[in-house]
Amino acid sequence: MAGGYDDRDGKIWLDGQLVEWREANVHILTHALHYASSVFEGERCYGGTIFKSEAHSQRLRTSAELLDFEIPYSVEEIEAAKYAVLEANGWKDAYVRALAWRGAGPDMGVASQRNPVRMAVAAWEWGSYYGDAKMKGAKLDIAKWKRPSPETAPSQAKAAGLYMICTMSKHAAEAKGCSDALMFDYRGYVAEATGANMFFVKDGEVHTPLADCFLNGITRQTVIAMLKDKGLTVHERHIMPEELEGFEQCWLTGTAAEVTPVGQIGDYNFEVGALTRDVAESYEKLVRA
Ligand SMILES: Cc1ncc(COP(=O)(O)O)c(C=O)c1O
Q1: Helix axes 53-66, 75-89, angle to 10 degrees
Q2: What does this protein do (predicted)?
Q3: Closest CA to 169 of 160, 178, 161
Q4: How far is the CA of 87 from the centre of ligand 1 (A)?
Q5: What is the domain class of 11-124 according to CATH?
Q6: CA 189/CA 187 separation, integer angstroms
Q7: What is the mean pLDDT of residues 175-179?
Q8: DSSP-derived secondary structure for 222-242
Q9: Hey, whose CA ends up nearest to atom 8 of ligand 1?
């Protein structure tokens, strides 16, 4: 049985080198720890190949640029780091976490021009993100927190600071026996869950919120392309909360979540229908193709 995430055997890539797992540490005066100057990726490796690996490495660099810092490694170097970690730990099926942040240095105020940008890659074996929801359908709460306007936060960055409201929403959801929460956006439209995008089905057509103030997930984009290939109509649009009542099926997409059916959001129920199962199965095949 593995210990806490800071207390395991294995190797982590830190600033260009593989180090012992328990020695992959940072100083308490790390800028990111105080001011959320940190970006990250969540990826899954299937049978030795990281799905959409380069897209994730590129997004990590783009997220940093959106937060006004540059990662001192190219996409190719990030790719090599990820595979070095998998090889060092002997894993072919694993979750991969790459992250970059402003470290400790001469600056300890809000500005951090002089502190070094640091990067790490860790990986671990991680099964189903929503437990048995893949079969039964996940139960979602409705969060009180709203996804912010792109004028308020860099919403296309996968940045640590954007997860503050996600953690609080997920804790509130879990206290009610739910496995996640649906978040609305600053305008009141249906947005996404705390770590996954949302899809709905009505009359054989698919509807998904327009990703104009939250992460346009790599899985979301993959699933939209897959649905279109199957000849299905996909509407990317603003969705009002009142519309939840009329949707028949619902699923979540994300690297960790993969395609997870949703059975309930607040008082609204959804069937784990044929299309949802088909999309989940097609995605499973695709990531291992
Ligand atoms: C807030 C949020 N939205 C959406 C997603 C889905 O993104 P992706 O499919 O790129 O993993 C994630 C997961 O990374 C997430 O954390």
Answers
A1: 120
A2: Acts on leucine, isoleucine and valine.
A3: 178
A4: 25
A5: alpha beta
A6: 6
A7: 96
A8: HHHHHHHHTT--EEEE---GG
A9: 217
How many Å lie between the centroid of ligand 1 and the Cα of residue 197? 6
Task: Tell me which residue has its CA closest to atom 1 in ligand 1.
Answer: 195
Q: Which atom of ligand 1 is nearest to the CA of 59?
A: 10
Q: Which amino acid is at 8?
A: R
State the chain's mean pLDDT as an integer: 96
Q: Is 158 among the catalytic positions?
A: yes
Residue 209 near ligand 1, beta carbon < 6 Å? no
pLDDT in tens, 279-289: 999 999 999 99
Could you tell me the distance, in angstroms and rounded to a whole number, from the CA of residue 164 to the centre of ligand 1?
Answer: 15
Tell me which of 58-72, 116-130, 241-255 is least confident.
116-130
Q: Do domains 11-124 and 133-287 have the same CATH topology?
A: no
- Which sequence spans correspond to the domains of the chain? 11-124, 133-287
Q: Which helix (H) or strand (E) segment is 265 a member of? A: strand 258-265
Q: 192 in ligand 1 pocket by Cβ < 6 Å?
A: yes
CATH number listed for the domain at residues 133-287: 3.20.10.10
8 Å CB contact between 39 and 64: yes
Is the CB of 38 within 6 Å of ligand 1?
no
CA distance 250 to 62: 30
Runs of H (alpha helix) within the chain: 31-35, 53-66, 75-89, 133-136, 164-175, 218-229, 274-287
Which entry of 52, 134, 139, 158 is annotated as an active-site residue?
Answer: 158
| DSSP codes, 72-136 | SS-HHHHHHHHHHHHHHHT-SSEEEEEEEEE-SSS--SS--SSSPEEEEEEEE----TTTTHHHH
Determine the distance separating the centroid of ligand 1 and the alpha carbon of 42, expressed in angstroms. 8
